[in-house]
Amino acid sequence: LAKTTQPISMDSYEGQEVNITCSHNNIATNDYITWYQQFPSQGPRFIIQGYKTKVTNEVASLFIPADRKSSTLSLPRVSLSDTAVYYCLVGRSYSSASKIIFGSGTRLSIRP
Amino acid sequence: GAGVSQSPSNKVTEKGKDVELRCDPISGHTALYWYRQSLGQGLEFLIYFQGNSAPDKSGLPSDRFSAERTGGSVSTLTIQRTQQEDSAVYLCASSLALNSGVVTDTQYFGPGTRLTVL
Fold it and tell me: Is residue A80 very low, low, confident or very high in pLDDT (cuts 50, 70, 90)?
């Protein structure tokens, strides 16, 4: 699986748009990019997944440039409840030669 | 349907004791995963099952750790002769049918078991 790099932490304010970028220089052709959100004392929760260009759902948007070596999770008009750790995961299959690497994630803090 | 459940939610044990952690995946999910998360840290992948089979056990931290899954459903993670460094939250996740080479499945996580080794 491709190794990912994210900022350790980010701060923002309520109502702002927040963009979290994940670098994955070694992404493979068939790899997809998935983002998870984790609140304290809970397991991670799926946010969004994409392969290329742009994906949007009711929660977030995911922007993936043509070279796919990075991706940006965009959270529109954040609120205090968006304070959480966000993980970028890149991968395709969990074969016998693979391990799933979530990385350390980005700790997002939203202030009033 | 219910989500992924794990039991116990909290477990306090003494150093040297064995512990068993249980995971009930979402019904119909054939893939099951175990992770470990130390305080303030990211997720450490331990092992995954496709059906009852675990293709790769190299993620288990030591030979004190073992996992099994029976009937393609419930899984147990066993830690023998627990050590203080085993203290962590153990998370289980499940996902739909997963074949090698197919799109990364969305994983649905349980609430975790907080293990404290005194």
Answer: very high
